[in-house]
Amino acid sequence: MNALLETRGLSRDFGGLRAVDRVDFSLMPGEIRAIIGPNGAGKTTFVSLVCGRIEPSAGTIVFDGADITALPAHRRVRLGIAYTFQITSVYAQLSVFDNVALAVQRTLADGRSQGRLRAGVMEALERVGLADRAWLPAGQLAYGHQRLLEVAMGLALKPRLMVLDEPTQGLGDSEIENFIALAREIAASATVLLIEHNMDVVMQLAHRITVLEAGRVLAEGSPDVIRTDEAVQRAYLGGGA
Ligand SMILES: Nc1ncnc2c1ncn2[C@@H]1O[C@H](COP(=O)(O)OP(=O)(O)OP(=O)(O)O)[C@@H](O)[C@H]1O
C-alpha cells in the first residue's frame, strides 16, 4: 500500500528559529496518527505545512503520489485535505449551520444544489452532535462546541485526510468520550492526523504516534512502544503518564 501523505526533509524557519526541522513523515490510508510533543515542539507548524497554511523553508510534501509542496491551501482542500479551521475562522454572528455551509461553498465551487448542500451540512452537524444547535449563532456555543463546529466544517468537505489540531480542548469528559467515537467513525472513511495533548485520548485512538521535540521526530510507533520509550518519557511524558 502506498502512503497517503509523505514529507521529506520538511523544514520551516521563523527568523532564526527552526520550528520544523527536516521531518520525514509517512501516513498510511485509514490510519489514525497522533502527533504529540511539548509546547513549542512544532506540531501546529508541521500540520500547517501539510495543509498549506504556511510555506516550507525546505523539503517536499507528497499527497496521494502527487507533489503538493507548492499548492495553495484551497487547492489542497480540493484534493481532500481538510484542516480543523481555527476558531478565528468561525463567524460568531452567523448560525452554526451557515458557518458549515460557508466553509463548503468557499472551498468547493462545484455548483452543488442548495438541497444537497443543506443535507451535507446537516449530516456533518449530526456527526459532531451539534444538529440541535444548527440555528444558534455560533458565538453562543461553548468553546468546546466551537471546536466541534470546526470539525463539522472539515467533515462537510468529505476529506480524505482530516487534520485535527487539539480537538478535545475545552470539552468535558462525556464530550471527550463522544469525540473518541466520532474520530473512529471519521477514520472509517478518512485518514486522521491528530494533534492532541490529552494522553488518554491519544492512547485510546492512535494507531501510531509521532513524537516531535524541537522540530524533530524524537520517536514514532504504536501507543505501547511510545508509552515505554525512555527518550519520550524524559522529554515529554515526565515518567508519569
Ligand atoms: N508565525 C510564527 N512566527 C514566529 N514563530 C512562530 C510562529 N509560529 C510558531 N512559531 C514558533 O515555532 C515553534 C513551534 O511552534 P508550534 O506552534 O508549531 O508548536 P506546537 O508544538 O504546536 O506547540 P503547542 O503545543 O504549544 O501548540 C515555537 O517556538 C513557536 O514560538
From TrEMBL:
It comes from the Bacteria. Keywords: ATP-binding, Nucleotide-binding, Transport. GO terms for cellular component: plasma membrane. CDD domains: ABC_Mj1267_LivG_branched. The keyword Kinase does not apply. Coiled coil: none annotated. One of its GO terms (molecular function) is ATP hydrolysis activity. Residues 5-239 form the ABC transporter domain. This is Amino acid/amide ABC transporter ATP-binding protein 1 (HAAT family). It comes from Aquamicrobium defluvii.
